[in-house]
From TrEMBL:
It comes from the Eukaryota. This is HTH CENPB-type domain-containing protein. SMART domains: CENPB. It is found in: Nucleus.
């Protein structure tokens, strides 16, 4: 009986084997493919950390595995592949090969002819492995939610506390829409993005007990709106694409950033999302990504149980107040992307912890009793009458993501002039203007202090907040004076 020869693997081959094992391929399949023995593959897996470190220290090795001589084609093919898998469409090697050739023609890459070896390297670079398809997609019946909550959810959430369980969802917002336009736009078909010039998409995420409301992710159309001029920081994370939609690339980038943040705090979480095409299955170290069953998000998604509606109600009240303020001050009532971001941040801070916890309970994910608080009761201010249910829900059906056509994918890769022109439509917004001076900031704070001191409703917490702001402005004032004195001294110092 002839025994198998123990072959020597290169560092690149070892790294590839580890990647494939991490993606679910079996030890036995790799033994057969490489004509090796089981103990050799097991040893490589046992020493995976040191092999990874050695490989990543070699830029020439990393380049051989990860680079492509036709990067635009690879980028387009990867976007297309992720879209198809999000729809659970089976994709084989020959299908990838044919699609790569199609993208090569669309991108006008000269002398590109895809081969089986190119597809193999493409799979290795992007950790794409073969997997067996089990079962078929089936229509969701009326019992699927209760069955999932009873039998599946307890197993998924086991080992996670309420503060470690999160939900995230997108919402489209007509950020310039005023109440008097509501009736005219009521029956507008928004699915094709006809009003995309007036909309943004926002990703909302929070944990089960509401103790952590994540910073909002806002997706606009323009990369650098003029209204961002002189603005050095935003209270939200801002990104863009020409449709102001969530894409798989944006979603994956957000998750990787969040995962790195959790790595630093050494905390692991469970994140529930719906299974739309813009939500690819991403391998993460500190986030366990769980997809809700198809067609059940209206019932099982906590953000859809009132959190997003609460956010929109708060935003539209702030929008109406700003319009009234502009009228009173005889200012032009233009609403810029920056205005929308600042108001959305305030609106998000107004969504209470209790409201979020109750939405998780209403979705059936938390069996705790509902929490009632008088602070959550709707206000009785006259302004609330301007924010009708119809006005709040006018953009509920706006699409936040959509399957990209081949031309859409190619356009995003090439960043064609047509897409640039479309994105630049938003850059016509009013600029933020010159930054307020320290003197103007101090004057504004003194005005606010006088306002609260002359009101019977003033509370100590408001005055304390003003004091903190005043101290912060004062520090900047002293820095300004010090730098000015240094400049004057240098000017008059002898040469």
């Amino acid at each position: 009986m002839t025994s198998k020869v123990r072959r020597q693997f290169t560092l690149e081959e070892k790294f590839s084997i580890i990647s494939r094992l991490e993606n679910g391929e079996s030890n036995s399949s790799l033994v057969k493919e490489f004509s090796s023995v089981k103990s050799t593959i097991s040893t490589i897996w046992k020493n995976r950390e040191s092999i990874k470190n050695d490989f990543l220290k070699r830029p020439e090795g990393q380049k051989r595995l990860r680079s492509s001589n036709c990067k635009p084609v690879e980028d387009a093919l990867l976007v297309w592949f992720k879209q198809q898998r999000a729809l659970h469409i089976p994709i084989s090697g020959p299908i990838l090969l044919e699609k790569a050739n199609q993208f090569g023609k669309l991108l006008q890459v000269e002398n590109f002819s895809c081969s089986a070896s190119w597809i193999q390297r493409f799979r290795q670079r992007n950790n794409i492995v073969f997997g067996k398809i089990s079962g078929e997609s089936a229509a969701v019946d009326s019992n699927v939610c209760s069955t999932w909550l009873s039998n599946v959810w307890p197993l998924i959430r086991a080992g996670y506390t309420d503060d470690q369980i999160y939900n995230a969802d997108e919402a489209g917002i007509f950020y310039k829409l005023t109440p008097d336009k509501t009736l005219r736009l009521k029956n507008e078909n928004c699915s094709g993005g006809k009003l995309s010039r007036e909309r943004i998409t926002v990703l909302v995420a929070a944990n089960m007990n509401g103790s952590d409301k994540r910073k909002l992710l806002v997706i606009g159309k323009s990369k650098n709106p003029r209204c961002f001029k002189n603005v050095t920081s935003l209270p939200v994370t801002y990104t863009n694409n020409t449709k102001a939609w969530m894409t798989s690339a944006i979603f994956e980038e957000m998750l990787q950033s969040w995962d790195n943040e959790l790595r630093r705090s050494k905390k692991k979480i469970l994140l529930l999302v719906d299974n739309c095409p813009a939500h690819p299955d991403v391998k993460l170290n500190f986030i366990r990504l769980v997809f809700l069953p198809p067609n059940t998000t209206a019932l099982l998604q906590p953000m859809d149980q009132g959190v997003i509606r609460n956010l929109k109600a708060n935003y539209r009240k702030l929008l109406v107040l700003k319009i009234i303020e502009n009228i009173d001050e005889k200012r032009d009532s233009k609403i810029t992307t920056l205005d929308a971001i600042l108001m959305l941040n305030k609106a998000w801070s107004g969504v209470s912890t209790i409201a979020i916890a109750n939405c998780f309970r209403h979705a059936g994910l938390n069996e705790a009793d509902a929490i009632i608080s008088t602070s959550d009761a709707p206000d009785n201010e006259p302004i609330s009458n301007l924010v009708s249910d119809e006005y709040i829900s006018i953009d509920d059906d706006v699409v936040t993501s959509e399957i990209q056509s081949d031309n859409d994918i190619v356009s995003s890769i090439l960043n064609e002039a047509e897409d640039k022109a479309e994105a630049e439509l938003e850059t016509a917004e009013e600029e933020f203007g010159d930054p307020p001076s320290i003197t103007e900031a101090r004057k504004a704070l003194h005005t606010l202090e006088a306002f609260f001191l002359t009101r019977d409703t003033a509370v100590q917490s408001e005055l304390n907040a003003l004091k903190l702001l005043d101290n912060s402005v004062q520090k900047n004032f002293f820095k300004h004076i010090k730098s000015k004195q240094t400049h004057i001294q240098n000017y008059f110092s002898p040469v």
